[in-house]
Each structure stands twice: as C-alpha cells, then as structure tokens.
Amino acid sequence: MISNLINRKIFTLLKVQYSNMLEYRVEIALWAISGIIPFFMLNIWTNNNLNESINISDIMLSRYFLCAFFVRQFSVVWVVFSFEEDSLMGKVSPYLIQPLNPFFRYFAQHIAEQITRFPFAIIIAFFFFIFNPESIWTPNLGILLLSILSTFLSFLIQFLIQSIIACLCFWTEKASSIERLLFIPTLFLSGLLAPVVSFPAYVKPWIYLTPFPYLIDFPANLLSGNETNISGGLGMQILWILLLFPLFKKIWSKGTKKYTAMGS
Amino acid sequence: MVQNIIDVKNLSKSFDISSKNPGIKGTIRHFFNRQTKSLKVIKDISFEIKEGEIVGFLGANGAGKTTILKMLCGLIYPSEGSILVSGHLPFRRKENFLKNITLIMGQKQQLIWDLPPIESFYLNASIYDLDKFEAKKRIKKLSEMLEIDEELFTPVRKLSLGQRMKCELLAALIHEPNILFLDEPTLGLDINAQRNLRKFLQKYNKETNATICLTSHYMKDITSLCKRVICVHEGAISYDGKLKLLLKKLSPVKEILIVCRSEKDAAKLESLGFNVKNKIKNEITIKVENNSITSSLKTILNNFDIEDLFINEPPIDEIIGKVLMKKDYDI
Predict the structure, then answer these.
(1) Which chain A residues contact residue B76 at CB under 8 A?
(2) Inter-chain touch B102–A97, beta carbons under 8 Å
(3) Are B310 and B257 in contact (CB under 8 A)?
(4) What b/e string do you get for B143-159 counting C-beta neighbours within 10 Å, with b at 16 or more?
(5) Which residues of A touch B108 (CB under 8 A)?
(6) A2-22 and A102-131 are packed helices; what angle lies between their axes, rounded to 10 degrees?
(7) pLDDT at position B138, please?
(8) Which residues contact B183 (CB under 8 A, 6 or more apart)?
(9) pLDDT in tens, B296-317
(10) Whether the Cβ atoms of residue B171 and residue B110 lie closer than 8 Å to each other
(11) By the number of CB atoms within 10 A of the CB, which of A86, A163, B103, B260 ranks highest?
C-alpha cells in the first residue's frame, strides 16, 4: 500500500518532470554533445599508442571510451547546483512543507533528464560507430542488464554525494564550491580520462577504496566486455550507497533545523 | 466551545547574523575573522488562535511577522518556547500535520514555470495522496471558485501575475488544508485581483471553517478579512485583539465636511463651538467624537439649510501606521 503510494508519487513526478525536460530539449541535446570528453581521450590514447602499455587493444579501448560516454550520460548529477539556487531563492520553502522530501523532486528531474538524453546519446553512438565500425559489438543480455544496474548505482552514488554537499547549503550557502573540490578526483579517478587499470600499481589499491572508480570505470569496463570483478564492483557500489544514505539522512535532518528560509 | 487550533507559548527565535565594515579593510577583516552576533528577532511571544478564525499579523518590515508564520508552519525551528498547531509540533513536519496546512507566499511560486498549472496541480494531488478522480473534482471546484478556466492549460510563464496567484492558491489548496498561512498573498496584484482573492478567501473560510493566518501590508486585506489582529513590533506582540476595538481606540473622532449655502452660514456654524479643523469659503470641516455624531448632526441639520455633507473615516493606514510604531497597546 505504502510502496504503491510512493510509486504513484514518483511516477507522477517523473511524468511531470519529463514534460518539463522536453521543454528544454535543445539544451539537453547540447549537454549530451558536451559530454564527449571520452572521445577526445580515446583520440589521445590511440594516436599515442598509450594503450600498448596497459595491454588493451585499440578496439577494446574505443569500446571502453564509448561506454564511459554512455555511463557519464546516464549518471551525470547537478543536484547541488539546483538545490543551492532553490535554497538561496527561497524556492525550497514550499517543498519543505509538503509530505515528500524535496530531494525526490530533484531525483525525478535527473531521471527525466536521462530519459530525454537517451535518443541524443544513441545518435552520438551511431556516429561513433560510423567512424569506428570495427568497434561495433553486441553485449549479451545479462551483461547489458548488469551494466544498466551498475550505471544506475553509479548515478545513485553521485546523487547521494552531491545531495550531502547540497545539504551543506544550510550552513555555508555556497555549497557548490565544496562540490568543485570533488571535481578533480572525480575527473581523474573515475575513469573518464583514463581507465583506472592504467594507473601505477602502487596507487590502484587506494583508488579502489574510494567511490570514484565505481562511477565510470567499473560500469564502462563491465559494458565494454573488459575484464572486471563484477560482484566486487557491484558490492562496492552498494556498500558506498549504504554508507552515504544514512549520512545524507543525518545531515538533512540536522540541516533543516538550521534552515532560515531566506529569500522567502 | 470552539477549540484552540494554534497554541503558542513563550516563543522566541534568534538568528546568527554576521556583520562587515565597509571598504577593503573591512572585507579583509571579515574574510579572516568573521564576527557574528545572535539577533533575537522574536521575543517571548504567546497567543492562541481558535479554529475557523482569520487573524491578521500586522507589523512594519522586519518586525517578525513572517518569521512567526514560518515557525507556525514548521519551516523554521524555534529557538525557545513551544508551538502546537492542530495538536502537532510543526517542526517535526509529520505527514498528518503537513496534510493539514498550507503556506502561500506572495510572489514565491511552486508552480512549474514552463508547464501549464494543471500539471503542477496533478503533481501536488499525488504528493498529497489524492487519486485522479478526487484530484479532478477538487481542481474543478477550486477553479470555479477562483474563476479560472483556460489558464489551467496555459504555461505558467505566459500567465499574468493575478492569474498566476490564483493558480498558486489552487495548487496550495488542492489538499483542502484546515490551516492557511498566507504571507502577503496580494503583493503586486491589481485592485480587482486583490478584491477577488479576498472574496475567495472569505468563501473558503466560510465553506470549510479553515483557520487563516495572514500578513499583509494592504490594510484592505486586513479590514475585510480579519476580525482579530496581532500587531508585532520588533519581535514582540504590541497588540492582540479585535481590529474594531483597536480602530475605535486609536481613532475616537470622525471628520464631517459640511458644504453650507453661504459663507455666512459657515461662519455661524463655526461659532457654535464645534472643533473646527479647517474652513474654506462655504466649506467647513469639523471633528466630532464617535459617540456624539448623531447629536452633532441633529444640531447642524436643525439649524442650517446645508448644501451637502460628508462623514469621513480617518485613513486606516494612518491609524495602523501609529500602531506599528508603538511598542505596546493596552486597550
């Protein structure tokens, strides 16, 4: 009964947010195109034969970066910026006195945006395959489903991390500047610029203890068919979610007590 | 006996405010050594509100009326004291409590800007666990009361301020709350839109017996909706009681403008011992105490053949303005 009600709320939120996102389809197409960093990185790697040092073939590397592009498209999160703006402008106030945590709205916005992005991402992949026909492959259904799950878990980790930072708005007002501190490790350690396997052996074990390699590297390796520890990767993703979720709840509950409803 | 729906005891709220001196020196000092001080914006206030009452909160800018409303609806946490609204501690924001209240802030919107309001209404309906049939019924009923129709299907960004405010009201009332917190709901609306909104609130209160707490700088909102007012001055309550009583106390006299047939008559009237405010040719304005208006009019009409006569109430804004400047009103 309760889950039905929650599902109905989420479904309506999704429906409404999807209609809203369709109003911004050009903007979303541009965002999708702006996410092609992995293709630039692929170019740098293959032109300099860097892949030879880590024993990955050209084809596997191009599949990896295509998958990194896909994972990035469906796990990109901006909740800290939306929440910060809403919080400073007083727009959070009406949401706070509704019987639904405002973060569900942002969550639905992200999912709706991902659905809107999907066709654009497919078009970009189509062009990628035209220029790299040798990279075409069909992942088996099991792997595909696990990759979708892993991408969703990656999205959840990023959403929780940003939501925790967003809650710091209750104390600092400009929480997005803290998020920028995380940008560098996310960029370098997530696998967006280079597969984590290419990092020096002495840092790799440390990197795998952070949430970053499970954001892009793990789901991208999984989908592209590169060798990866599936249960270990999924386990770590779930572990990070289990660690971050109670932390988010705690900070949210403490933060709302500090809320001053400025701007309203 | 009508029950208290809001019970506030010794409520206080303090905010930490940081201060900065002007200039580069002040900026650098502010960067390295931020000075904050605790500012008590609500000071030990207590009041009760009965079910179905419409109460106006009056006060100058920064007096603390909006802060009081925010604490009553659970948006901000009180520093000291207790609040019970409909049997709940507002700040806990329990689902049962949130389903019973609504907060409307003038010019702050919850409608989704790029979509028609109907989408926001259905979204709110599902947030408040209303099924589609019930939601449809309530949207129909409220849109009839608010006299909106085509606006439901027009993107919010294309609506006028007045139309948008009506839609905001519908979105905020779709769950039929028992307690309405309205913070300057008529801000920026034209005279007709203000009147329609007031009419709607009166009707809603009459039909649902909802309790309404209202702040407004437009005195017409207060005089046409509220029998009771709570005046807030620098975070403390300076008056809590009937609006009529306050006006009577603060404005014990009325002004009567008499247009006489001739200047001679006006001069004669002046000599009768009335408190004359001014006299211009054949027009004379006198001040008469409220309790002697009838006898004064009798005297004038019996003794003079007058051309015209006007009884003027002193401007309510002026009277309330006096209240807002004073710390305490003992009526």
Answers:
(1) 259-261
(2) yes
(3) yes
(4) bebbebeebbeeebeeb
(5) 90-91, 93-94, 264
(6) 50
(7) 92
(8) B66, B69, B103, B104, B105, B106, B215
(9) 888 888 888 888 888 887 777 7
(10) yes
(11) B103
Q: Which residue of B has its CA nearest to A90?
A: B108
* The total number of residues written for chain A in this structure: 264
SS3 B315: coil
> Which residue type sits at B271?
S
Of B10-19, B22-31, B235-244, B260-269, minimum mean pLDDT range = B22-31
> Which tens digit of pLDDT belongs to each residue from A72-108?
999 999 999 999 988 888 888 889 999 999 999 999 9
| Residues A109, A111, A116, A117, Cα dihedral to 10° | 110
**Among partner residues B77, B123, B128, which is closest to A257 by beta-carbon distance?**
B77
Contact B203, B54 (CB under 8 A): no
- Residue A257 in contact with partner chain B when CB distance is under 8 A: yes
Secondary structure percentages of chain B, helix, strand, coil, to 5:
40, 30, 30
Residue in A20, A24, A261 closest to B75 by CB: A261
Q: In Å, how far are A22, A188, A202, B131 from A12, measured between CA atoms?
A: 15, 37, 49, 11
Chain B residues lying within 8 Å of A257, measured CB to CB: 77, 91
The owner of tokens 């203000």 is: B194
**Nearest residue on chain A to B73, judged by CA atoms?**
A97
**Closest residue to A264, CB basis, from B108, B120, B172:** B108
Whole-prediction pTM: 0.83
The ipTM assigned to this model is 0.80
Give the separation between CA B218 and CA B196, rounded to whole angstroms: 14
CA distance A95 to chain B (A): 8
* Gyration radius of chain B's alpha carbons: 25
Torsion from C-alpha of B102, B108, B112, B118, nearest 10 degrees: 50
B321 versus B117: the higher-pLDDT residue is B117
Closest partner residue to B122 (CB to CB) among A12, A99, A256 is A12
Comparing CB atoms, the residue among B103, B120, B126 nearest residue A97 is B103
| Partner B contacted by A18 (CB < 8 A) | no
- Please, what is the average pLDDT of chain B? 87
Residues of chain A contacting B74 with CB distance shorter than 8 Å: 96-97
